[in-house]
Amino acid sequence: MSNEASIERVDLTIVGGGMVGVALACALAPSGLSIRILERRDEAPQCLLDALSSLAEHGYDPRVSALTCASQQFLTHLGAWPHVLAARACAYTDMTVWDGRGRGEIHFSARDLHEPCLGHIVENRVTLAALYRVMQTHDNIEFVSGAQIESVSAPDAQGCRTLRLGNGDTLHTALLVGADGAQSRIRALTGMGATEWDYGHHAIVTTIETQQPHQNTCWQRFTEDGPLALLPLPDASGRTLSIVWSTSPAHARELMALDDAAFCAALGAAFEYRLGPILRCDRRYLHPLRQRHAQRYVQAGLALVGDAAHTIHPLAGQGVNLGLLDAAALAEVILDAVARGEAPGDARVLRRYQRQRRADNLQTAAAMEGFRRLFDDLPAPLRLLRSSGMNLVDRLAPVKQHLVLMAMGLRGDVPRLARRPLR
Ligand SMILES: Cc1cc2nc3c(=O)[nH]c(=O)nc-3n(C[C@H](O)[C@H](O)[C@H](O)COP(=O)(O)OP(=O)(O)OC[C@H]3O[C@@H](n4cnc5c(N)ncnc54)[C@H](O)[C@@H]3O)c2cc1C
Fold it and tell me: Ligand 1 centroid to 273 CA: how many Å?
């Protein structure tokens, strides 16, 4: 963009160049609409791509996601999945979940479903870089780094919005999409209310090395303090994992204050040494966890996707998966509208997206909340019941199969672009 203030027109403006915003842009590129992504961070996409070309020299990104088969399918549709696999990803075949205060345990295995895996653990920067690579092949997507949004106008008669940017530029757009994450400025500037509450958990994330191999398994231990997840990472030794340790804010601060050796010892004990002692950990990062849900996802000329619309507890690793399904559903609705000659920012068009996604996302958020409460500090008889319930589910093959297929994104109302072709 030039240094002089200007007034420009684009069909679609996406604020937020994270995984969900860039996936949406790539999905909509075949429409021929002019698309602009406005990203607050200063680094150009090429910086991340250059860094990834020497991935082996870099440590692991502390932020990883367990991508479901539906997300894999959507990324395949976009052409990004081969780039993910060419960088690095760890297919996990098993999942073990157990009650830290009882004897309940559930084990899920891809073998039982005749599937090659249950999903993939992928570093967020690998997914983002794969999407950047696809984005760069589309001439109608422009990515602007270091963008600041000063204001957003109300919709005009056609539903178009005008954005004023920090550099003095004005942008007129037929459709504005807020993909700017949990603290969405677009949600705030447009008065889209959100219901939110504190989970009373902070999550510590880091990369660790264990004595024994991870066996391509996701491990999760539930305690009254919160869930502790160990997720396998792709390395030759098979002993490197990413952790998400959700616990009370006070306990999280205590853990953050420990030196590495003491932290590894505390982690080993909390994980019941299922993979032996923890040998090493990288730098730790702390994330306060809040549940948020926008009361509406759309207005005329405006839609919210991903964390801008909803954030949930990471305990089932569904956050970005829901966001990618939002992107797939919104893209589908807009592609259909454009083919029919309808305006993409028309409120009736956008409501189709809201109908598809909001109930589904609310249901997942409620399930996460239910799960979290199930592991609150319960009296002993209820703890016994909880453990017996887990063991019962473990033996009920059809129930177990339903749960795991839902978690893999292979059941339910999956958008067309994320649906696996029938085999
Ligand atoms: C500890 C932890 C573990 C998690 N584990 C998992 C997991 O295993 N699986 C899973 O599916 N999900 C997981 N999640 C959730 C997942 O990380 C998020 O759902 C996902 O990152 C959301 O993607 P997004 O693109 O919507 O938002 P973000 O990743 O937050 O991207 C938003 C983008 O918008 C930009 N931006 C922000 N404000 C502005 C602005 N004003 N103007 C312009 N640009 C702006 C940001 O710089 C960023 O690039 C986890 C979350 C946490 C906290």
Answer: 31
